[in-house]
Amino acid sequence: MADETRNHLDGRAHVVVQSGRIEQLHQHIGGPEAEAAVPFQLPPAGHRFANRVAEQERIRRAVEDHVPQAGPLVALLTGIGGVGKTALGFHVARHLADRYPDGVLHVDLDDHRREGAVELAEAVGEMLAGLKVEKDWRERAFAARVKQLWTLTRDKQLLVVIDNARFGSEVTPLLPASDRSLALVTSQGTLYDLDVAAVEVPLGPLPAPDAVELLRHLVDDPRLAAEPEALADLVEGCAGLPAALLVAGRWVRKYRRRPLSRLVGELTAELREKGLPMVEAVWDAAYEGLDGEAARLYRLLPLLPAPVIGEEPAAALLGSGYDEAADLLEELQRAGLLDEGVDGWRMHDLLRGHAERRLGQADPAGAERDRALGALVRWYRRQAARADRTAAGPRMTFAPQPDPAGDGPADLLFEDKAHALRWLERNRAALFGCVRLAFDAGRYEDAWGLCEPLWTHYLDHPHPGEVLAAFRTGVEAADRTEFLPAMVRMRCQLARPLWEAGRHEEAARQLDQAVHAAQALGTSFEEDRLRASALEFQGLLKAETGDLAGAVADFTASREIHARIGNAYGVLLLTHQEGKVALRRGESQEAVGLLERAHAAAVEQGRERMAARTGFELGRALRAAGRPEEADALVAAALESARRRGSATDEVRALRELAELADALGEAGRAEEHRAEAGRIVALRGGLPTPHTS
């Protein structure tokens, strides 16, 4: 198996190191500048780690005995939920970090799990981010991202903690390409489909002495020594699960005046009454100690479709203000029913299941759940729409905004475009999750209405798996409402991520339906605009698949509609698209004419980004037409615009085009300077040699 693993990994590395510029990038990332910012993605130890001596020794021996050229060492930590796999992985990683000078990375696969499946492209992207690869420089396609990861890790000594794996196929793409690296993987069971050799380290419940030792570390309380029998009963009831012992420790600290025997007796009585294991009784006791609103929030928190719990959505669930929700979250944390991480509040999976059971008991008819879910979805719809308007300005939308009355928390205010985009990205898991929640609850307008503001975010932050799932749901939701504009718009939004994923035939079917449905739209300005938009999408797909003549026909038809309804920006966009296609077809003179008109319109309308884009394309067309001296100023202006906007991708494109222009003008020295500058930016951004273009 070791030889197979070596051949497998060596072959993968071989695929991605052919380019000399990739070699140059690899050397740069491994140089002194990178060493100054070595990643260490482990949380600080919350308390003294107790026990698991045999398991730690097994991992240590595996590290010492690992054979070079056998691929990265994989240690698989297995056991039931709450048994302490993640805590052990973090503890071992902290102690072994010095052996891996290139850093320690951590990825929790549950953070990227959607409806049971991990969006692996996002998980790989998180690892690339840990390696200082900025998002603009991460490959979009999953396979390309994996190769990018292999390229950047092939000679490194990395330690990677991969949490909450369910299948080996979720782990393999995340492994470093270097045989000097270590991966600590946690899973509830053996990963039989893991295609690399792994040292399995099973974790069972803690033996009673070890559990007592852990509880003593967690709770500095004289009752533990004074009442050894009660302590033994408490530990036995927690079934040796560190997660349960942690909650029990907090609970013991909370009731400092009660004898420990009384506390255990109360728990035991409740256990007999409800027939639950003691660990459930511990959480039930903590829950029963909450006030009414804190208990209600606890029951409702599992409705949140994201791993991180924020104060704002918690307030939406309750119909309260933000400050009240923040206070209640703190009460849950003090009760041991919520954890506070660096990125927000989190609820352990075992506790989430407990909260769901308590909701079922308190709300058997589902009225409380339905009210809270509706309020949550409406709140996210409003905030996403506000963020989208701030980031993209007024644009074509068809979903009416939900009435905020009675939902509790006030709407958020976004300072500027950057703030709005950050909010959308930070909350994307919840936003995409709410699309599915709304659909499953029969709230079809909410489902497709949420997809509308996610479009602009998708263009700047592509997350293919999430987007495809959400936009497919948006199409189905629009069909359920039989609202024609939504049916057209959702199919257009779905088509682009489909063709970007290489699913051209499926994208074509969606757009064919959209274009035909658009013929039945009315004659209002927005409906005509939507009809033109459907034709534009169809033209973009044709251009993507090489049908340039068909693309021109669709772009022309779309532009004519925009001209008829007086939409100057639509005319500008479609003229730009026609010019780009003409340039691709080698019709440089026609391209110059079209792009000159588009550029002039962009300048006149005061649209800086479009002025830069059209100026850049016009410069390329002028060079192709043998007029490089006229192109230089246009591309230089595009470069300055890219720098003002902080768009490194556009900056590199402009620098490379300026180099081509300098060559055409016989200025070899200037050409070399531009190429060197572009290469420096690529290396600093951690990207591969060819950046993405829009």
TrEMBL record:
The name this protein goes by in its record: Regulator protein
Biological classification of the source: Bacteria, Bacillati, Actinomycetota, Actinomycetes, Kitasatosporales
SUPFAM superfamilies: P-loop containing nucleoside triphosphate hydrolases, TPR-like
Organism: Streptomyces albidoflavus
